[in-house]
Amino acid sequence: MPTRRTRPLHSSFGAFRHWRSFILLSLVLAALFVLGTTQPTLALTTGSVATVAYGQTNFTSNTSGTSATTLSLPFGIAVDATGLYVADGQNGRVLFYPTGSTTATRVYGQPNFTSNAFNTPSATSFGGPVGVAVDVTGLYVTDIGNSRVLFFPSTSTTATRVYGQPDFVSQAASTSANGLNRPLGVAVDAGGVYVADGTNNRVLFYPGTSTTATRVYGQADFTSNSAGLSATALDRPSGLVIDTSGLYVSDNHNNRVLFYPTASTTASRVYGQPDFTSKIVAVGATGLYGPTAMATDQRGLFVADSFNNRIMFYPTTSTMATQVYGQPNFTSNAQGVSATAICTAQGIALDSGGALYVSDAGNNRVLIVDDPLNSLQASSDGPTQLGSSTTLHA
Q1: Based on C-alpha coordinates, what's the Rg of the chain?
Q2: Hey, CA dihedral for 210, 215, 219, 222, is it positive or negative?
Q3: Alpha helices in the chain (DSSP H)
Q4: Which of 134, 159, 225, 280, CA to CA, is 20 to 30 A from 93?
């Protein structure tokens, strides 16, 4: 079991002053304290070939910046047929990169690529973008500092719909079917929108384009917000992903991921814990430490195991990981800055070709692993690391 590290906050991050106690930012800021010191270089596998990273000029740099080619504490990411969306948290913006380019061509939340002020709430500003999701109609962004989710239609950078607030200039946190309190993750499918309402310890479902929730996960009703540990309770949910079988929720403070079958608000599967009443911090192929985000396709589930500085892959419905990215094995959890190491992953996504995108927040970059499972074979006698054909690029 790893040594349990504290999750301190640092007063210099004034832009995040409105939610300093929040666990996801604590995890990232704790990781950032080690930047600028010598980082270990972790060999994922011999033969891995690195090319470029979004936000950096090479794989040994991790400086932050405010431009069309730099990032500062990136969080959630989303991919569609046109390109990549990145919630650039410390810069108070979301960037869009067209497919194949590491230079952003569109910015949400700021008037230009060199501004990073946290402005008063409006239809064109953020108080802290964290989660992003995209569908054929547009982009959804969780705005943690303003306790809301904004929807931007098509390629517009002006929001036309707001969840959690009565208008675009309000920012009060609340607990109701229409309110939110520091939301984190967001996901969308043909049925509607799901929001991880972090400080309310719940997930809300909004049907269609409605901004009034009709289903709640983690609470008995729309006015309760207590944290808990069971198959029907949550403690700071952060990330969400949906597939045809149901909803996955990263239950951050409980060090686990829960799976809820379609339309059910009772979890039927747990990752990272032996049962629904444990919250152990652990490494290994069955442990997690502050998971933040997930992605899924027909191959299985990928989980950003944030404080273990790794990405885990679980095939189909198995709760034992068979592959790991960011560490040389399942018992290591050191931070690193290289082509095969990460520092506090905060977001992951998959594109239609199976490539894995990783928001490497502590290193101020986003990485891509081309179809990481394409040539891998799970070991017959236990978990394996990513294989030698893995190519990292951006």
Answers
A1: 19
A2: positive
A3: 23-32
A4: 225
Q: Are the beta carbons of 83 and 97 closer than 8 angstroms? A: yes
Q: Which among 180, 196, 299, 344 is positioned nearest to 257, based on CA atoms? A: 196
State how far the Cα of 74 lies from the Cα of 233, in Å rounded to an integer: 28
Task: Provide the edge-to-edge strand list for the sheet that holds 202-207.
Answer: 186-189, 192-197, 202-207, 215-217
Q: Strand 269-271 to strand 192-197: parallel, antiparallel, or no bridges (unpaired)?
A: unpaired
What is the Cα–Cα distance from 235 to 191, expressed in whole angstroms? 25
Residues 6 or more apart whose CB falls under 8 angstroms from that of 206 comprise: 163, 192, 193, 194, 195, 212, 213, 214
Token readout for 1 is 């079991």
Cα separation, 130 vs 112, whole angstroms: 19
What pLDDT score does 374 carry?
55
Which ranges of the chain have pLDDT less than 50? 1-24, 26-51, 375-394
CA pseudo-torsion sign 314, 320, 323, 326 = positive
pLDDT on residue 202: 98
Residue 143, beta-bridge partner list? 129, 148
Six token digits for residue 229? 């540990």
CA distance to 179, 208, 355, 384, 388, per residue, from 376 (Å): 45, 39, 14, 9, 8
Longest CA span, the chain:
57
In three-state secondary structure terms, 214 is coil
